[in-house]
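Lecture 7, part B: from sequences to assemblies.

Below are the input chains for today's worked example.
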Amino acid sequence: MDLNFSAEDIAFRDEVRAFIRDHYPAYLNDKIDEGEEMAKEDFLAWHKVLHKKGWIAPAWPVEYGGTGWTATQRYIWSEETARADCVRLMPFGLSMVGPVIYTFGTPEQKAKFLPRILSGEDWWCQGYSEPGSGSDLASLRTRAERFTGEDGKEYYRVNGQKTWTTMAQHADWGFFLVRTDPAAKMQEGISFLLIDMKTPGITVRPIITLGGEHEVNEVWLEDVIVPVENRVFHENKGWTCAKFLLAHERTGIAGVAASKRNVERIKQVARNTEDGGSPLLANPFFKRKVAELEVDLAALEYTELRTLAGESSGKGPGPESSLLKIKGTEIQQRLTELALEAAGTYGAPYFRSMGEGDNSFAVGPDSARRTAPVYFNMRKTSIYGGSNEIQRNIIAKMVLGL
Amino acid sequence: MDFNFTEEQTMLRDSLSRYLADTYDFDTRQKVVREGKGWNPKVWQAFAEELGILGAPFAEDHGGLGGGAVENMVVMEEMGRAIVLEPYLSTVVIGGGALKHVGGAVADATIPGIIAGTTRIAFAAYEPQGRFHLNDLATTLKGGQLNGHKAVVEGAAHATHLLVTARTGGGQRDAGGISLLLIPADAKGITRRDYLTVHGTSASEVYFENVAVGAEHVLRQEALPLIEQVVDEATAALCAEACGVLKVLHAQTLDYAKQRKQFGKAIGDFQVIQHRLVDMFMEVEQAVSMTMMATLKLDTAERSAAVSMAKAKVGKGAKFVGQNAVQIHGGIGITQELAVGHYFKRATLIENQFGSVDFHLSRYEGIALAA
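Predicted structure of the full complex, as structure tokens:
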């Protein structure tokens, strides 16, 4: 047991730091700060830099394109990218379907999809939730019927509706949970399909969220034809992939490094915000809330490190990752509450993109500008990836045996 | 002790409630928000002419209904229930309240216009550096000239008058040396940067550059006690608005929990959801109680302590009820599609308006807990 970095770790940290300094596309952060719409190529700009360097998938096994870093090096990597405010990489390929494919996929599926996930050539989206199946995901009704085509090959015909499909407007491929055996009991009759989003019969419709963002979509599937070779793992055993993916998603969802960076940012804002003639950070109420956040964040961080250490010794993320999801998202939400509170009066103005009108006067400090939309947006974190109520059910059942 | 409304107050509530139910449904409101003006002048006109509510707290001599703080509470709760955009709070409660306290010729001259809907007042008090402190003023009135910058002035873009706090003497945060002014919104030297707020009203950054201010524009010198009184009254009214917002958030969430089925039953059948809805209900009831308490103490020596207690409690309740309304709705709660998200936005802005929970707890401590 040792909490210190070795000399090699420190050398690695310096290498990472220098690489980010020299190669990170910094224009992305200006766009985000201005509340500008991010284009698909903006989301991919950092991805492509990392792919070129070979650092795009630190969590993957080396044989599939991982970096072979130790758990400590991966920790340093997430610390340093958060510290430099690097944009988040889209997780749907890298953290979600990628691990499913290299764990459960056929050699053909691995060869076809993994390189294109790494390069960013394919943008993936997740077809899990349905209007009637949110927390109760296993009740999903999107139907896939198997048939033999005129070419003699096997296909599925898929019909149904998915929702909350994040960034589907950009997606080339989607991974979908579909019901292949309606007679089986809930989790049993589900399969995991990879579907080309350009297939006829797929309609993507935007859902606009409270801050005015277009992040999520409804996806309608009407007689969508999918070759059987695009099914991952056995027919009717897709729930195994789904559970594996959700446990993976949960660890990433904790967002420790980004939250640490956000605590620093809030402290900086509170130092520069006046409150009755002294800095807001000198206000004992505000300061106490920051202190409590730092304590809770340290507790989360060391719990995550213990989990990661367990993973690298071969255990893989288990139901305890639900703890990381609950505590991680609670902290992320409290950070946005605190940022909005720090903004004070200037939390009220709403800006998305300033196109018209007299913009010659600034409206409040830059740090206040997007605090309310971000606060609204981050309410999603206790809902997505399995709501925090569902995560508590998982811990109760799987960890405590209740 | 009597917590009942008079017959007149009940009529006021019922007629406004009916009007808003008939004409101010969610889709109509959202249409106004999308138009981007922050209000609908026709609604304001109807408030004045069809309903007569803009006269609710004013004396009959001025053409009002002869009411006061309780009438404002009744009106504001209904405003909250329909998340109304139009500026009753700044024009009637704040502008009208200041004029009532000042009295005299300026009140006689201005209040009838408020009641008729032709005079609209925006409250230009808070400043970029001042956070929630009404005494922290860099705006100055010297030699008859007003200079400074006011932050997030709601309704300035469609106001006829600005109610302005300005420093005539003393240091930036002194209690003394503050005047309260009522000036025409189109006076020479005033510039604005207009924008929408997060919940769809309009607000502005207002800049004064050598605006000529005569003695007739000064409502009161050494005005901080009056300003605090008016803001206390406004805060009580805002708490009433919050009660309307929270009641709807709770009712809609309860309704959703009964209808939404997962795992083969309504999610309201799960104890974890039941207890959450009960906790929300308790917050709503306590918000209503504290709002009544504060409203009924506005004309007593306990006014400031009572208002800060109420705002601290209501602010906490607004966060709890708003966040849990969204959580129980799940994904649909954070979309623009359902009303619940928009009530959540309003509840969120109310948390910080006229001071955060921390601000009001500190203020209460200062008044009531001297060691």
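Note for the exam: Residues 204 and 219 of chain A are 5 Å apart (CA to CA). Keep this in mind when comparing with the next example.
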